[in-house]
Amino acid sequence: MKTFKIGGVHPQENKLTAGSPIVAAPLPQQAVVMLSQHIGAPAQCVVEKGTPVKVGTLIAQANGFVSANIHSPVSGVVAKVDMAADSSGYMKPAIYINVEGDEWEDSIDRSNTLIKECNLDAQAIINKIDEMGIVGIGGATFPTKVKLMPPPGMKPEVLIINAAECEPYLTNDHALMLAHTDEIMVGIEILMKAISVNKAYIGIEVNKPDAIALLTDKARSHNGIKVVPLKCKYPQGGEKQLIDAIINRQVASGALPVSTGAVVQNVATAYAVYEAVQKNKPLIERVVTITGTSLKNPGNYLARIGMPIEQLIEAAGGLSENAEKIILGGPMMGKATANIQAPTGKGTSGIVVMTQEDAHRQEPSPCIRCAKCVEACPMGLEPYLLSKATAMGNYEVAESHYIYDCIECGCCSFSCPAHRPLLDYIRMGKGKVMGIIRARNANDKK
């Protein structure tokens, strides 16, 4: 069975919400829409206090090539344009909208009719995706139009759809595949047309046999699309690991994934592309897995962008007395938040409520040089060395040992028998080294 070659682990899956249908979350009384909810430059606000908006109204424009438009996820009136605390606690620009009813822009097709044919050419498809503010919603939030426009000299040969969903707890992609199979298949065809390829592979881990069977059946009527069952191994959803698993090509250090001939898009992004191109619908809502052993109603919720995290947790039954930690995303790559009043964004794939028992970190002990972290690293790095170099402030060593190639998957910390917080140090060191490299490059240009 196919999988990537280097490293990887298999944490307990805890797919508590597997098989849970998608349920619409209630509308908030106020939506707080952050202007930075994608990789790249924050969007530029185009509304002001008192501006009436509908669902789908453009409220912030992309501010550069690597940026994304933002549309109102609710109807009502702009209460203010101000700073808001994000899930990390940092104050960032945001648009506050008081919700009044649920009136949508007339241009959005809200019918359930499947539209199979796309008559747009490649550039028109990319322009529509850009206009609708589509980003990678597997978690990275990279503007989709940028990935569909590779640098000169790099020609895509194949589209790879990431439906692995290897993170423990998360089932939002699984639920989406079961509920909107036909739309996803059309979205994949649109993405193939946008990058002018005639082959697409959908990588799905074998713990989702119903999705594999359903998409395999649908793929028979779509030329060039093939479902590839994958062994359950984390972090198979990483671009480089998925490319290795499916087409047996490796992304060189510092190179773009498209250098292998592959463009990778998340399965939920393919669905968003279908809605954008065929239904003229901006990215104003997404499926979020809200889960945890202490929740009464864990499930997969269709939530508007800008909803308070707290309200979504309440929809799933609310916090219990033994709730200890709330993680946005999955427990391996997600980040804990202390601010549950913060709004969700385009990249909010999951909200995991962990109990004291689940969240407890064991006391670290000295490194025993067992090399389990080296064996587990899917990038072939030496996590123990990178962690020590960061702790000692020796960033030259960290850079010379490719700390910038770390994908922050957490396999090292997970596999460490000494319970050392390897990723915590490496993440800090990576940020320092990337800053040093940027400063050096800026000086070289002078």
Account of the protein in words:
With 446 residues, the chain is of the alpha/beta class. Helix content is 29%, strand content 20%. It has 14 helices and 17 strands. The strands form four sheets. It has a six-stranded mixed beta sheet with strand order 1-14-13-17-15-16. A hairpin with an 8-residue loop joins β5 and β6 (70-71). α1 packs across α4 (181-195). The protein is globular and about 65 Å long. The protein starts with 21 loop residues before the first strand and ends with a helix. The mean pLDDT is 96.
Globally, the shape reads globular
Cα-based radius of gyration, to the nearest Å: 21 Å
CATH superfamily of the largest domain: NADH-ubiquinone oxidoreductase 51kDa subunit
Number of DSSP-assigned strands: 17
Shape-level CATH architecture of the largest domain? 3-Layer(aba) Sandwich
Side-by-side strand order of the widest sheet: 1-14-13-17-15-16
Q: Keywords, please?
A:
446 residues; alpha/beta; OB fold (Dihydrolipoamide Acetyltransferase, E2P); Rossmann fold; Ubiquitin-like (UB roll); six-stranded mixed β-sheet; four-stranded antiparallel β-sheet; 17 strands; 29% helix
